[in-house]
Amino acid sequence: MQRSVYDAEHETHRDGVRRFVAAEVVPHRERWERAGRVDRELFLAAGKAGVLGVAAPEEHGGGGNPDFRFNAVLNEELAAADVLGVGLGLSLQADIALPYLLDHCTPEQAARWLPDVVGGETILALAMTEPGAGSDVAAITTRAVRDGDDYVVTGTKTFITNALNADLVITAVKTDPAAGRKGISLLVVDANRAGFRRGTKLSKVGQHAADTAELFFDAVRVPATQLLGEEGRGFYLMMNHLSQERLAVAVQATAQARRAYELSLEHAKSREAFGSPIGAFQHNRFALAELKTETEIAQSYVDRLLLAHSRGELDPVEAAQAKWWISELCKRVVDRAVQLHGGAGYLSENPVARAWIDSRIQTIYAGTTEVMKEIIGRSLGV
Ligand SMILES: Cc1cc2nc3c(=O)[nH]c(=O)nc-3n(C[C@H](O)[C@H](O)[C@H](O)COP(=O)(O)OP(=O)(O)OC[C@H]3O[C@@H](n4cnc5c(N)ncnc54)[C@H](O)[C@@H]3O)c2cc1C
C-alpha cells in the first residue's frame, strides 16, 4: 500500500531509527525479557539516537519538532523488527509521559527536567491507575495534603509501566477529595524521596521486559514547586493527553497487525502441505486477502489521524475510534497469523506467537474498548 503520510524528513529519521533498533534493541531483547526489565542504558542509547525528545524544544536538547509522525516512525520500526511488544518503555516515555512535561512545565521546571528526559538519563513513569480505580480515573484516592511548601502524598498506584526504572513519576493525586474531578492534580515525584517505595514486578502474560509494578507513597513530601499545571486541573490534563496516547496505541496495533500479515504471507509461500504451498489453498488465500484488506484500511485511518494530529487537529472521538477498532483488529489478525503458521506459530521464539501474547493488552490499557465506545457513544447526542 502506497502511503503519503510521511515526507522525506520522516524517512531520513526512519533510517536512523532503524539503525538504533538493530543495534540497541534487537540484540538485547531475549536478555531483557528474561530479566523482566530493560537496562537503563536503552534509554541513554535512545536519547543519543534522538528518538526520545523529537518534540522537545532544541534549547533543552530536543528536536524542536512537535510532529507526532516522528514518534510513529519509532513504533513502526520496532514492529518491523519484531520487538514492539517486548515492553521497552520507550513509548511510555516519548509518546505518553514527556508530552505532559512539554505542555505544562513552568520554564524553571522545563530547564530542570527536560534535558535529562530527552537524553534518557531520566526515566519517566505516569501513575494514574490504583487498585480501586482504573477506567474510573476520577475515583483515585491517593491523597496530597498541602503542608507548608510541600504536598504530603499517601496512597498506592498499580500497573505502572517503567515503575522499577523510573526516576520521575508523574502522579495523579487528590488535592481536594470533595471536589470530584476538579479535586485531582498532577505532581512530579522524585523516586528518591523518603516514603516512596516500588513493589515487586507484576507477573504478566506478555510484555515480559516491561517493569510494570505497584508504587507506594507513604507520606512522601513533594515540594509544591513540583506541581504540574494548576492545582485541580489534573483530570482534564489527563483526558486531553489520552488522545495522543490512544493514537500511539492505534499506530502500534496497525504496525503489529501489518507485520503479522507480512510474516504470514511469507510463511504461506514457503511452507508446503499436501504438495502445495499452504497459501495455495483457497481458505488460506482468502484469509491472507482479508488480513491485507483489513490492515490497509486500518492504516489509512491511522494515517489520516496522524496527519490531523500533525496539524494540531486530532479529534478525541476519532482517536477513541482508532484505538478500539484497530486494537481489536490486531487481536484478530495476530490470532489468524498464529493459525496460518501451524505449530510453528505456537513457539515462543516465533514473532507471531510473541505478537499474539504481547499485543493482547492493547484493548485494555490507554482506556479499554468499552470505555472507548462510551466516549464515542456520548458524542452522538443520543
Ligand atoms: C501492562 C499494563 C501497563 C499499564 N501501564 C499503566 C501506566 O503506565 N500507568 C497507569 O496509570 N496505568 C497503567 N495501566 C493500567 C491500565 O490503564 C488499566 O488497567 C485500564 O485503564 C483498565 O483499568 P482496570 O484494569 O482497573 O479495569 P476496570 O476499570 O476494572 O475494568 C474492568 C472491565 O470493566 C469494563 N468497564 C469499566 N467501566 C466500564 C463502563 N463504564 N462501561 C462498560 N464497561 C466498563 C472495562 O472495559 C473492563 O472490561 C497498565 C495496565 C497494564 C495491564
From TrEMBL:
The protein's required cofactors: FAD
Annotated Acyl-CoA oxidase/dehydrogenase middle domain residues: 125-220
Pfam family, one: Acyl-CoA_dh_M
Pathway this chain belongs to: Siderophore biosynthesis; mycobactin biosynthesis
InterPro entries, sorted: Acyl-CoA_dehydrogenase (IPR050741), Acyl-CoA_DH_CS (IPR006089), Acyl-CoA_Oxase/DH_mid-dom (IPR006091), Acyl-CoA_Oxase/DH_mid-dom_sf (IPR046373), AcylCo_DH-like_C (IPR036250), AcylCo_DH/oxidase_C (IPR009075), AcylCoA_DH/ox_N (IPR013786), AcylCoA_DH/ox_N_sf (IPR037069)
Domain annotation Acyl-CoA dehydrogenase/oxidase N-terminal: ranges: 8-121
Domain of life according to the entry: Bacteria
Signal peptide: none
Domain Acyl-CoA dehydrogenase/oxidase C-terminal: 232-380
UniProt keyword list: FAD, Flavoprotein, Oxidoreductase
This protein's record includes keyword Plastid: no
Described function: Catalyzes the dehydrogenation at the alpha-beta position of ACP-bound acyl chains. This results in the introduction of a double bond in the lipidic chain, which is further transferred to the epsilon-amino group of lysine residue in the mycobactin core by MbtK.
Family: Belongs to the acyl-CoA dehydrogenase family.
Protein name stated in the entry: Acyl-[acyl-carrier-protein] dehydrogenase MbtN
Source species of the chain: Amycolatopsis rhabdoformis
